[in-house]
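Here is one chain, start to finish.
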Amino acid sequence: MNGADALIETLVANEVTACFANPGTSEMQFVSALDRQPAMRPVLCLFEGVATGAADGYGRMADKPACTLLHLGPGYGNGLANLHNARRAFTPIVNVIGDHATYHRQYDAPLNSDIPTIVGPNSIWVKSADTPDSVASIAAEAVSASYGPPGGPVSLILPADAAWLPTSSKPVIADVPVRAAPAGDAVETAAKAIRAAAKPVLLLGGQATSAAALVQASRLAAAGVRVLTDTFIARQPRGAGVFQPGRMQYFGEAALADLQGVDLMVYVGTVIPVAFFAYPDRPSVLVPEGCATLTLSTRQEDSVAGLAALADALGAPASGSVQPLKVADAAPTGPLTPQSAGVSIARHLPEGAIICDDAVTSGGGVAVPCGTAQPHDVLALTGGAIGIGGPLAIGAAVAKPDSKVVSLNGDGSAMYTVQSLWTMAREKLDVTVVVFANHSYRILNIEMGRTGSGNPGPSASKLLDLGDPKIDWVSVAKGLGVSAVRCETAEDFDAAFARAMAEPGPKFIEAAI
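Its structure:
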């Protein structure tokens, strides 16, 4: 056994059994060790941003970490955007980052870099295993740290000599932390404040949007308390039989208009809401003037227990209302729009499906009809770094191989990690990719006016337009091994999506909107 064996054996002993990888020379000992531990599933990703986003999707659905295998500092750097999203989703991920041999670092070889500094901002824990005998214990420490709470990406740096040198160390079992219940006075304070408030609101985030938490939140809604979630949620159940809270509006002025008159905001598993961007002469904090705020449970605490205790304290009903099952009987007709596509997705989405939403301006058209579709999970873009729709879907499909996975993407977003299609084909994942092709960074056209930058002229338009040349999505998908169709009408999309839901394996639909 060498250090690489010790690392993989420890990961597997702690139920880390999926590795999304883009290795290089310094990681070859780890790659070789995979053949000696078949319980670890290696998944090759052609770009590190796919690997890190896939680990995010896996962790959100499996409720345990996957690992990534990245090649030194530049490899980590290529995966950073989706680790930013994972950090905002509080997803447990163990990043294994190869490094030069410890004695070789001093020579500043071309790929040498300050890995601890590079990984620090998007890691909740960083450590280098510089000797083979330390690898197992440090790996267990990494797994434990990834759980938080509330969890997040960690970075284990593995020098090449620590991987290849022998060791007699055994796998080490990690201590998995348990969330503490909110303090009793927090529940009592929140209950008292809600009774005294004229228009209270609960704002949910993180663990407070889990299935168990939404059951308790529905009780509070039945007791007359309005319930909202953060704008972007890592994972949230949706559809028939599920309580559906409102959602904090994306644009700040819309959020404040929606919250007009609210005199108490109670945070559950989240913090004070702020605008996604700053705009001239508009507020950053999305709390109405004069509104009191307090915290029922922090991100580190058990929000399910907190909501249950608060519902009991307020004498809330034993259960609240849930969404009915309501989908369109007939296929939509006419030109294809995000709204008509949403109707078709809701019509054919099977129970237990997973939607990975990176559709940007087209996403709302799908969300509304899917609110009463068969029960499913939604994974959202938590950190704003587009290009996560395909990678999330890979991880979700590996974590839940019996579930249909639907990846919704804007065309600009999809190009960031188009290599995802190759991995879906190679692994034969049951993923249907929908790209809404409007050949524009439409969200930036909207934001340009909102920031007071004026209307785009000829030069500015070149940075917002994707139509010259138009991307041939069907050819791109087929070239990467995924069967593909282009749909221009609502009828065509309905038929294509129905086929995709009825057949196994990866499918691609270009929705020409």
